[in-house]
Amino acid sequence: MKVLVLNCGSSSAKFQLFETHGMKYIAGGLVERIGFQDAGLAYYTRSGENIKNSLHVQNHEKAIDLILKTICHPEYGDLDNIHQIEAVGHRVVHGGETFTGSVLIDEAVLRKMKDCIRFAPLHNPPTIQGIRASRHLIPFARQVAVFDTAFHQSLEPHAYIYALPYEWYNKYGVRRYGFHGTSHRFVANRAAQIVGRPIEELKVITCHLGNGSSIAAVDGGKCVDTSMGFTPLEGIVMDTRCGDIDPAIPLYIMEEEGLTPAQMDTILNKECGLRGITGGDNNLRTIEDKAEAGSEPHRLALKIFAHRVKKYIGAYAAVMGGVDIIVFTAGIGENSSTLRRMSCEGLSFLGIEIADADNRNNETIISKGKILILVIPTNVELAIAQQVESVLKREEHLVEAEELTS
């Protein structure tokens, strides 16, 4: 079965095409600057060819139409026609409490997704536009929504309720939702495969460290806690997001500086984190280089980042009553041996010890203590394709069961 995976942003549409038999990647690419005169498409073919075009793409429907025509292009496309696409998987940032797993999309699902826009006003609308465009352009393909928040819906109330007036939860849905769930699920299951043990027997801490970073405690395959909260702003330090802070600080600075809520929101999301500490740098490679060259603000930024990761590792080991595996993934987690080493320093009392040579070489297993430490590349698009296959198989089984009982 051919599955097209779509990830629609406010002005972009990423895509990858998979064959579910063996879960083989076929091709992929990106349409960016949708709605602008200088929009462009990059397409990476099965043969490794890189096709680039610059053109005006008015909206997401035009972007998806362009994607479909590119995939089926007579000269460099990787499909003969669009009817070979049997299903489309859509990445959806926020599913609120409504969606606890991936679902087949119909009008009822779309209405419920619109109700979740209030939680992700920047991310969910373009996704819904992409879904509607895809349903219109390839109505014969089954459409599946895969939610970043769904994996964290297994949290118990004591892990997701904030110590705020409880009516805020009832009236406004204020609670911990967590994000990066598709990645956390993928690498936790991949870790179980690598060590050859059932995920149901394992306590895993997954560290998704990238431009946005979050950590999750996965006990027996289910998420029991995660660092991001009501929004992706909570948790560990990130490239431009502040992570955990005293909630009184924004109120104090707003009064001192005369800032509006919108201005403070921009600062907390765009001007804090590693960028705020270093005075402008948020690329970890740059920060590591400047720290090695002697820059104290850059050394401090690394120490703060690693300190926060270490605190969450210790906390989640306590939450689960132990840990079997720690996974580092995403751009920083997969590539920064320095950050991994610093994050695990001082944790030997828990059996967490880095093997320096393996860590420097970015090996899959980088531990020498009793707790396994793994470096696993995340693959959200592949994870979405897997979820699509799972949902469609489930639907087929339900149809078969209904036919047997009718």
- On the 0 to 100 scale, the average pLDDT is 92
In the residues, how many domains can be counted? Answer: 2
Query: Major β-sheet, in short?
Result: 8 strands, mixed
> Based on helices, strands and strand pairing, what is the structural class?
alpha/beta
Q: How many strand segments?
A: 13
What fraction strand?
Answer: 15-25%
What is the helix content?
Answer: 40-55%
Q: How are the strands of the largest sheet arranged?
A: 5-4-3-2-1-6-8-7
Second rung of CATH, namely the architecture of the largest domain: 2-Layer Sandwich
* Alpha-carbon distance between the two ends: 29 Å
CATH topology annotation of the largest domain: Nucleotidyltransferase, domain 5
Radius of gyration: 22 Å
State the low-pLDDT regions, or none.
none
Give the SSE order as H and E letters: EEEEEHEEHHEHHHEEEHHHHHEHHHEH
CATH class of the largest domain: Alpha Beta
Number of helices: 15
Could you characterize the architecture of this molecule?
The protein has 406 residues and is of the alpha/beta class. The chain has 2 domains: 2-147, ATPase, nucleotide binding domain (Nucleotidyltransferase, domain 5); 197-375, ATPase, nucleotide binding domain (Nucleotidyltransferase, domain 5, 2-Layer Sandwich). The protein has 15 helices and 13 strands. The protein has helices at residues 60-71, 107-115, 124-137, 157-160, 166-172, 181-195, 248-257, 261-270, 273-278, 284-292, 296-320, 330-335, 337-344, 356-360, 380-405; strands at 2-8, 12-19, 24-32, 40-44, 50-54, 85-92, 103-104, 142-147, 203-208, 214-219, 222-226, 325-329, 372-375. Strands 5-4-3-2-1-6-8-7 form an 8-stranded mixed sheet, with helices on both faces. The protein has a 5-stranded mixed sheet with strand order 11-10-9-12-13, sandwiched between helices. α10 packs across α11 and α11 (296-320) crosses α13. The chain is globular, with a radius of gyration of 22 Å. The mean pLDDT is 92.
